[in-house]
């Protein structure tokens, strides 16, 4: 059995052995703190009945933990230089399938069908900032069968996912995440828990998928177009933001009437509206 890689000496030794060079474009920072790994496994509530999809396994540090906790692990890694390392570090785990691919091009629903009989899977990942939103929204919008998503992200992104109206962090991502899932902050993670040390703090957040959204809306796509338009120009009023959006084809008069129907002030800004109010606005306009 391979030694646990979260030991910094083992991680450094392995990196030197393969002359591995960290790729900034992939946001590669490897976890070297066992306490954080334990918190991730516990938060995801992984059992021997579960299939886990790990996005970006790196050198396999968390993958080893996942393999011991789950029935099946599918690890998807985009960096070709990490594949030989992963083949070594995961060689003793027969329940791990390693895929060299871009997660945005993977048919995750098919993986769930093939390895989990189509039942909901659990997703675990250490995500770089630039790709956090496309991955998480892809999992939700494509209706992938997911029970929960437990991810390491930049702290400011975790803050955005769980905040409410009126906060400077509140925006389209907050509303999208909260429409599909219940966010729960698991832990804040300082820079010294990684190799190399990132320039910003991180956080682990768990998103538990709702069986039914917390609000009812006739046209989900329209609601999200309205949400995006209202935050694209935060400093503008909701009326002006929606009127100027190329994604919407309502007249200024129609939008003003819809805002008035919700008994909102004419000069209201989008950042003050709740998810339920955005749903009501979409229904009024549709």
What can you see in these coordinates?
The protein is an alpha/beta fold and 286 residues long. It folds into 2 domains: 8-209, 3-Layer(aba) Sandwich (Rossmann fold); 220-285, Helicase, Ruva Protein, domain 3, CATH 1.10.8.100. Helix content is 41%, strand content 18%. It has helices spanning 8-17, 34-44, 61-69, 83-89, 108-116, 129-141, 155-162, 172-180, 220-232, 238-243, 252-261, 275-285, and strands at 30-31, 51-55, 72-77, 96-100, 121-126, 146-154, 181-189, 194-195, 202-209. The strands form 2 sheets. A 7-stranded mixed beta sheet has the order 4-3-2-5-6-9-7, with helices on both faces. Helix 9 (220-232) crosses helix 12 (275-285). The chain is elongated, with a radius of gyration of 21 Å. It starts with 7 loop residues before the first helix and ends with a helix. The relative contact order is 0.11.
